[in-house]
Design a protein that fits this description.
This protein is α+β, with helices and mostly antiparallel strands and 262 residues long. It has helices at residues 3-24, 44-60, 90-95, 166-179, 189-197, 211-223, 251-259, and strands spanning 33-37, 40-43, 65-68, 80-88, 101-108, 111-119, 124-129, 134-136, 139-140, 153-156, 182-184, 203-207, 226-229, 242-247. The protein folds into two domains: 3-140, 2-Layer Sandwich (Fructose-1,6-Bisphosphatase, Chain A, domain 1), CATH 3.30.540; 149-259, D-Maltodextrin-Binding Protein, domain 2.
Length: 262
């Protein structure tokens, strides 16, 4: 399989979905918002973007199955699986905050082979494929080279429904506030990871995540020279609902800090 050629087709699909989303931006009212659970929302734009993506990807790779946030497509067992978040940052989108993205990953067996994160408002396309580079708008990117925690800028996410680990999370947040240049919360885990890949952030951590939040971005980080793990230092970060992503220099230090609280 030509992974690079397929990745470029995936990028076209992400760009088309981003255009669809951008055209709908600003037209969503409270009556257009549905609740999927506590503080977990979906709009017709999420659903429309997902249908568009699934339709395009099914034509690209008919034998593949889908794991998509809004449930369209089809599941089952297959060699290839697409993992899709059609609009990562729905709450931002609803409130008119211009930070949301389209996230598409392809897994072959248990290995991610393509990752695409498309930032909608500024048309930034983060892309990577098996044995290839990580690129931003087709230019190679690399994680940061910072080695000192006090000089690092981190990203995280705030729990919005799973509060079981809230106390240790807040203690860890307080610790990093005192021991880094600061923390940021974008509201899109896919973008957090993409920004680690291009060196804007030195690390990102969060719990309570789903595979479609992290699969594409984590792969882009890996191809950009970074490292991903769960909070125990293992590889169970796509399905394990927790991730630490960083440049290779800081990873062990960050992991040690996290393990002090979790």
């Amino acid at each position: 399989m030509n992974y690079e050629q397929l990745a470029l087709e995936v990028e076209k699909t992400a760009r088309e979905a981003a255009s669809f989303i951008l055209n709908k931006s600003g037209s969503i009212g409270e009556n257009d918002v549905e609740s999927k659970g506590l503080h977990n929302y979906v709009t017709a734009v999420d659903k429309g973007a997902e249908k568009l993506i699934v339709r395009r990807l099914a034509a690209l790779l008919p034998e593949a199955v889908f794991l998509a946030e809004e449930g369209t497509g089809h599941g089952g067992e297959a060699r290839f699986r697409w993992i899709i978040d059609p609009l990562d940052g729905t709450t931002n989108f609803i409130h008119g905050i211009p930070l949301f993205s389209v996230s598409i990953a392809l897994m072959e067996g248990h290995e991610t082979v393509i990752g695409s994160v498309f930032e909608v408002n500024h048309s930034e396309s983060f892309l990577a494929w098996k044995d290839g580079p990580a690129v931003l708008n087709h230019k190679p990117i690399h994680v940061s080279s910072r080695k000192i925690l006090h000089e690092s800028l981190l990203a995280t996410g705030f729990p919005y429904y799973d509060y079981d680990l809230l106390d240790p999370y807040l203690n860890l947040f307080r610790h990093f506030l005192k021991n880094t240049r600061g923390l940021r919360r974008l509201g899109s885990a896919a973008l957090d990871l993409a920004w680690v890949a291009c060196g804007r952030f030195d690390g990102f951590y969060e719990y309570g995540l789903n595979p479609w939040d992290v699969a594409a971005g984590a792969f882009i980080v890996e191809r950009a020279g970074g490292k991903n793990s769960d909070f125990k230092g293992g590889n169970h970060y796509i399905l394990g609902k927790e991730i630490l992503s960083s440049n290779a220099y800081l990873h062990n230090d960050l992991l040690n800090q996290i393990q002090m609280f979790f």
